[in-house]
Amino acid sequence: MQRVITEAKRQGVALAFGTLPPPQRGAFFADANQIVISDRLDPIQAAESGAHELGHCYFGDRCSTRASEERAWIFAAKILIKLEPYMQAELEDPHPVAIANHLRTTRRMVELYQQHHLHAQALAAPRNIFGQYEDEDYFDDGALMHSLRSGREFRCGLIA
Fold this sequence. Notes:
mainly alpha
């Protein structure tokens, strides 16, 4: 939830918890520049809903359309998941549910992050002068440890 609070401050929008009619989990009130998150949600659901509503705020959405909802969910994934914790979770277990549990988010957020943000953020990851990731290393058997290339192995100087 801290990432949601930080992003809300950055955007200058007020966050509040309140009673919303089911099944509504969150609402962005553009005129008041305020987001209300349902007080009946658990912390993971509250963070996800708050990040989603911040997406509506960021894009200036005043009505709900299929495109604006999808765009807000994609924005939420970017807010809730950061590259370094994602890579660590992926190293432990690459299944989306395991990653979600490790990051304390939902499978949906992990899959949206993988589809829309992972590649761009990985390309922007710090590299050394040889173009290798700064955290890149190898196992004793020569397999690459970096999570973004974990399927590669070196054999006799060739990438298999």
